[in-house]
Amino acid sequence: MKKLKQTLQNIKSVDLETMEAATARLDQLTKPKGSLGKLEKLAIKLTGIRSELYPSFKNKTHIVMAADHGVVEEGVSPCAQEITTQMVTNFLNQGAAINVLAKQVGAELKIVDIGMVDDLEAEALITKKIKNGTNNLAQTRAMTKKEAILALEVGIEVVEDAIKSGAEVIGIGEMGIGNTTPSSAIIAAITGAPIAEIVGFGSGLDAAGVKNKIEVIKTSLKLNKFDSDDGIDILAAVGGLEIAGMAGVILGAAANKVPVVMDGLISGAAALIAQKIEPEIVNYLIPSHISVEPGHKTIYKKLGLSPFLDLDMRLGEGTGAVLAMPFLDTSISILRDMATFAEAAVINPNA
Ligand SMILES: Cc1cc2ncn([C@H]3O[C@H](COP(=O)(O)O)[C@@H](O)[C@H]3O)c2cc1C
Ligand SMILES: O=C(O)c1cccnc1
After folding, report:
1. In angstroms, rounded to a whole number, what is the distance separating the alpha carbons of residues 207 and 187?
2. C-beta contacts of 202-208 below 8 A and 24+ residues apart
3. How far apart are CA 146 and CA 297, in angstroms?
4. Ligand 2: residues whose CB is within 6 Å?
5. How many angstroms separate the CA atoms of 165 and 156, rounded?
6. 115 has which bridge partners?
């Protein structure tokens, strides 16, 4: 609890003065005002986070949190729970989509066991297990508040280590069979959106499976009472350990003035929890893509963010997050390297 408290105290508002300077420069560059759209908004946001006009995002780290979910016994996923362990092994052997995409953009990968059912031993795996999977949230609370806090603190620790090693931008992703169920429950709990509008087929449920998933989520929200103003209570009632870990990464990164690139539905649920705990974190969050999962747009709406990419993706692991990472460097190179109207001797249409 001490680590979490300290981290929350260290989260400060972003630097509005530097953002104004960035806006003024963007408006002097040789292009119609605002014509580079979201890239311009991104550059302005990043200067505010880093308190620097031309921050670097060359050193990229992507953190994948892995955990299991008791609720899979309700048939909410078409996939067997063992796939979590098999995929984490695949991550460690460089064979998954996230390995290929992270390598492509030059991001270092960190894989964290924060709550897998199986105990894997591997040098490259960061083992910070809170427990071997959550409880079945259709029967009882997913975890205790203490476990939720410990999982948040794992996220803070892992991201602080990455930042100490030089990370200038952090991506978040996850692996955990069944985790679109707690994610959808969190979205419903926080936004109040109708459950049937949020829930999707996850990794590939059929129509009957989606119907069952909706009922399981409704049951979990009725059964597990929580204080809807308390992000940690929501996390403990209907969340997941990897979701808590990612929320901790967001809080820890914000406390250190480092931007976090979100991924799909599950990282989005973590962002909603982090926002509930500390609303200021939204100013440190960078969206990436819009997932096929219907609840993802509800998340972006609640966060007030708009994604860059629409690639019909629905994988998770942080695949969308790493794909968006190069946009950070790109937006700053626009701000830094383009000529102004005065430098290029071009008539300024806005003057
Ligand atoms: C082989 C495989 C690799 C994955 N990588 C991410 N997920 C994604 O699917 C899971 C969530 O979907 P659901 O809630 O329907 O179980 C998570 O592990 C998520 O990361 C995968 C799923 C599978 C099958
Ligand atoms: O939106 C996602 O990231 C997602 C969707 C389905 C399954 N796994 C992840």
Report:
1. 21
2. 202/76, 202/77, 202/78, 202/293, 203/77, 203/78, 203/79, 203/177, 203/314, 204/78, 204/79, 205/76, 205/77, 205/78, 206/78
3. 31
4. 180, 202-203, 263-266, 291, 293, 296, 314-316
5. 14
6. 67
Q: So which residues are the catalytic ones?
A: 317
Quick: pLDDT tens for 2-45. Answer: 999 999 999 999 999 999 999 999 999 999 999 999 999 999 99
177 CA from centroid of ligand 1 (Å):
5
Residues in a beta bridge with 66: 113, 175
* Ligand 1 atom with the shortest distance to the CA of 180: 14
The tokens of 149 are what?
């806090």
Look up the ipTM and state it. 0.99
> Cα(197) to centroid of ligand 1, in Å?
20
Residue of minimum CA distance from atom 5 in ligand 2 = 314
What six digits make up the tokens of 223? 């059964």
Query: What Å distances lie between residue 319 and 135, 269, 285, 288, 325, CA to CA?
Result: 27, 16, 16, 10, 10
Report CA(334)–ligand 1 centroid distance (Å): 36
Domains defined for the chain, CATH in brackets: 60-318 (3.40.50.10210)
Distance of alpha carbon 228 from the chain centroid: 21
Q: What pLDDT, in 10s, does the model give residues 159-207? A: 999 999 999 999 999 999 999 999 999 999 999 999 999 999 999 999 9
What is the arrangement of strands in the sheet containing 60-67, beginning at the earlier edge strand?
Answer: 125-127, 107-115, 60-67, 169-175, 260-261, 285-286
Mutate to test the pocket of ligand 2, among 64, 180, 181, 309 (most ligand atoms within 8 A of CB): 180
